[in-house]
Amino acid sequence: MDNNKDLKRILTFSAIALGIGLLILFNYIFDSYQLRILNMCGIYITLGLSLNLIYGFTGLFSLGHAGFMAIGAYTTALLSMSPDLKELNFFLVPIVPWLANTEWSFFPALLAGGLLAAVAGFLIGAPVIKLRDDYLAIATLGFAEIIRIVLTNTQSITNGSLGLKGLPPYTNVWWTWGLALASILFMIYLFKGSYGRAFKAIREDQVAAEAMGINLFKHKVLSFTIGSFMAGIAGGLLAHLIGTIDPLMFRFLITFNILLIVVLGGMGSISGTIISAIVVTVAMEYMRILDGPMDLYFFKTDGISGLRMVIFSLALLIVILFFQRGLMGNRELSWDMILNPLKNRKKGVKGE
Amino acid sequence: MSFEIFLQHLINAISLGSLYALIAIGYTMVYGILRLINFAHGDIFMIGGYFAFYGITMFFLPWWAAFIIAISLTALFGMMIEKAAYRPLRDSPRVSVLISAIGVSFFLQSLGVVIFGGIQKGFPIPELFGIRIIFGNLSVMSVNLFIPVIAGIFLAGLMYLVHFTKTGMAMRALSKDHETARLMSIDVDKIISYTFGLGSLLAAVGGIMWGMKYPQLFPLMGLMPGLKCFIAAVVGGIGNITGAVIGGLIIGMTEIMAVAFMPALSGYRDAFAFILLIVILLVKPSGIMGESLTEKV
Q: What value of ipTM does the predicted structure carry?
């Protein structure tokens, strides 16, 4: 295998170069709607990876992603909005004075959003992390709801249910895909090292992992905090992509979408998450047709809103009922697999 | 706060609490037997309300007939869901079943939006339940007085069923140990199916009365009450029916009374239950009535 190493390295670099080339091309030829979908893909890759880190790799079934995204989105938006824009937004209840005149540039604001989400993740994770999977799910879901309720009610800071409108569209393809690429590289790096292996050991068997000297609490909280950080940054990017945020955006639905991506792609597979994030995001947009009026020859409707979500929840059900391992299981797409599909298959059979 | 107003809040709190209790029982029974948070339970509650609504408005049934049909249909529906989405995963990791339950929940919600429409529908309140009783400063809808009574009747029936019939005994046996129960010639699949039917039946009763109390229905109405009732089940001690009732009443009370005494907190109403959940999980994870579960190593 080793003689292939250089070839693989060249292939990896050329794939990244090709990716960047494609992004430049897309940036040039796509209209704003398609660009938006492209950006969404990048954001959802990050989100999918962050949930996969927490759930797929460490085995902590957390449903709190919407809350961390909300924290990231609100922090980034509030820090980067200009004072005039804030005054325009907060017409019902004036904004608190210490926030009124802050105007940070996008990157520090984004970083602050991610850090605040990480702090929240740490504070939330530390007490509940020892709970078993289903209790953890409901506790994190509860925290996400509490965050949303607090955002709705602290009107002088977040503008309450009115939300924030007219956010400057800082997010572009470079931000979203740059973040996605950074997350991918980070995950690959993480799982080559001892931390990643410890996470996987915890997923497979907590007791055995602890017996091997892995500090369960430290590693679980670490995984949870890193995941929250990534979710917070993705939330900040999402806010400046869409341009409008309000607490209703961060309901359980958005966590469901991310969960769908992780389950579809395979729990514990980086490449599976990337593929399914792109597929789900693009499908989510193009299936909007289903919500609009339809005219098949034998069957006419005047637009059923919600049909799209019926199909997506069915997709989740079918995957979990019949293809529990998802697209990739916990394997990774590697050059070996592409260059040498036959050999790999043979090995797979032997392994089973 | 005058005594009359306090009494009014108290009646309101008890009726809300008994609704929560009815729904919480479904969670606690399913969790007791399958160790599964049936995420779709809140949506079964919604479906029950809609069945009754269509029985009255579309088929012009008298209200009692519509209610009975809606309740039985919902029970069947709950059993169907178990068969389709949970039974194939009986031997899978618990989280897979949980994800399946989340999928069912979203499926029912979005199907509800497609079939019933996303707009709120006013529930046609039968005359008996819609009487406004005025007593000095006190003004209560009669449905608020009926709810605790009806909930009590169903609870008594359930208690009888669980403690004094063979099916109930089988249910209790299953909640201890599936394998041993099977060896005692208990048809495990059938009993699990009955449990879902029973839980869904109570959810339907809750859904119909919810529809009359806040006279409107919408496809996402099951989401919040569903989560809160699961919390009620956890607070009371999951797997324990009496515990679920106590938990339901506690959450109903806290919500109404906290807002009544501290109106400034009204925006945080939905957060109380979650805060209670987290406190309980940290202080006494087995709940008020629950036996402590020891983790097998």
A: 0.85
